[in-house]
Amino acid sequence: MTDSYLDGNALAGPLGEIFTVDITVARSRCAGCGQTGPVAALRVYAQAPGLVARCAGCDEVVLRVVRDPAGAWLDLRGSFSLRIPLPSAE
Ligand SMILES: [Zn+2]
């Protein structure tokens, strides 16, 4: 693997098709080391099928998204949780 990566804002387009909110401001928690931070702070590698987002703390894969003509594959197994800010429900 090379050290060439993009920041998590590269996920805005592909994930914007799936989520109606700006997912780059959501906070992910890495399943590898527990580091919590905005999706925009992940390191995104585009030299694979789709996009692979790795933790800046431990380099584990936090999420992957692959778009094919019929849909998208979203793999979140590398994150304990994804906290998505939303307008108040009240
Ligand atoms: Zn980590």
Automatic annotation (TrEMBL):
Pfam families: DUF6510 (PF20120)
Name of the protein this chain belongs to: Hydrogenase maturation nickel metallochaperone HypA
Species of provenance: Allocatelliglobosispora scoriae
